[in-house]
Amino acid sequence: MWQSKPVLLLLLLAVTTAATSGKPLLTKITKGAASTALYTAPLSAGRPLVLDLSAPAITTPCSGQTTTVTLSANSTDGSNPLSPVSFAATATCAAAPSGAVGVAGLARSSASFPAQVASTQKVANSFALCLPSDGRTGFSGNGVGAAIFGGGPFFLAPPADRPSITTLLSDGVPLRQPFAGNPGYFVTATNGIAIDGTRVTVSGSGALVVGLSTTIPYAQLRSDVYRPFITAFDRAMGSSAKVAAVKPFELCYDSSKLAPTRFGYLVPNVWT
């Protein structure tokens, strides 16, 4: 039996298929308000489309079944935005999520956004997401991320980090799809779960299959995984920043007491 529990999730994902030629497309990613926590990209004439890993198509409000839309982004060399690029894409008619004009489906489908970028721009059917950890911008926030569609290389500043980020994105855990009828992306945690290098002992049976989502704001864990996980995380985190829990959360921390990094707050690393 599954028991939904909230756990903060920061995702860095790359999905890659055969490469061709041409320049990849780059767009910024922002995170919405806490009520939705949806990730959007300004792909429709500067207006936001929700990025959805489990959606098989581009969708927009319209009459009928499908329509043609004009989408746009910037070409990139992997480190800088270059010239603006506009292209026509086929979209399925559906209601738009709150605060957006449609959905950019990222699932493995010929109608998905990455697949249509690949066919129109003659680039690889691939994408990489670096998701912002919160909805705040400016010095105190980590509110802007990036998406690259069409292949690498993938660079992050400063230059010393470039080899490591490219290696990280090209040597990731193989993705499986579909699982339980869901068209999204999943990984099997064959080595279990580890927090700061210490393995978390889970008593339940069955493979630990991890589903990746950009529309569910918090990770959902099986009950047999949740309890040992938060116990181990609490131990690794320590009590210096811990505060009284606020429902629905069971562990809460004062962010002003957490050291910031370019990738979010300095907290224990979780590996699967």
UniProtKB/TrEMBL annotation:
Superkingdom field: Eukaryota
Entry-linked InterPro entries: Aspartic_peptidase_A1, Peptidase_aspartic_dom_sf, TAXi_C, TAXi_N
Residues making up the signal peptide according to the UniProt record: 1-22
Residue ranges occupied by any Xylanase inhibitor N-terminal domain in the UniProt entry: 63-150
Keyword Signal: yes
Transmembrane segments: none
Coiled-coil regions listed: none
Boundaries of every Xylanase inhibitor C-terminal domain copy: 185-270
Record-level Gene Ontology MF annotations: aspartic-type endopeptidase activity
Keywords: Signal
One GO process term, biological-process aspect: proteolysis
Similarity comment: family membership: Belongs to the peptidase A1 family.
Name the UniProt record assigns to this protein: Peptidase A1 domain-containing protein
Natural source organism: Aegilops tauschii subsp. strangulata
